[in-house]
From TrEMBL:
This is Enzyme. InterPro entries: Anthracycline_SecMetBiosynth (IPR052164), Glyas_Bleomycin-R_OHBP_Dase (IPR029068), Glyas_Fos-R_dOase_dom (IPR004360), VOC_core (IPR037523). It comes from Phaeobacter inhibens. Transmembrane segments: none annotated. Signal peptide: none annotated. It holds the Pfam family Glyoxalase. It comes from the Bacteria. The lineage of its organism: Bacteria, Pseudomonadati, Pseudomonadota, Alphaproteobacteria, Rhodobacterales. Residues 9-125 form the VOC domain.
Length: 127
């Protein structure tokens, strides 16, 4: 049996939200990214654009029904600045920090919930 080993297993992420404007404010404030509103598909989407679209995983936010509070899958996002600053921005923007920083080889992250209760993680690489 052959083992399937793609460049990335996650090829696209989607976060459902109930309020696109509130989600824009939250995710832009927390990550430091500029989100792009696109309306050429079946639903409006807010896009996180990676530095190199040919070699990065994209993420979008769309109007939808989030999983019950903190229950859905967790997507881990990069954010500008030190992890402690990101934790503060999560709270300032109406989200909730739900864990302390967790250390991994190569970095650390924490779990949070966005204003809709979506489970998200924020990651900071070390080195």
């Amino acid at each position: 049996m052959m083992a399937y080993t793609p460049k990335d297993f996650l090829v696209w992420g989607e976060i459902p939200v109930t309020d696109m404007d509130a989600a824009t404010r939250f995710y832009q404030h927390v990550t430091g990214a500029e989100l792009e509103l696109v309306t050429d598909g079946p639903n409006p989407m807010l896009l996180f654009r990676p530095k190199d679209p040919a070699n990065g995983v994209a993420l979008s936010i769309y109007p939808g029904t989030p999983a019950p509070d903190g229950v859905g899958p967790t997507l881990h996002l990069a954010a500008e600045g030190a992890l402690a600053e990101v934790m503060t921005r999560v709270t300032d923007a109406g989200g909730q920090v739900v864990s302390e920083a967790v250390s991994l080889p190569g970095g650390h992250f924490f779990y949070a919930k966005d204003p809709d209760g979506n489970s998200v993680g924020f990651y900071e690489a070390t080195g």
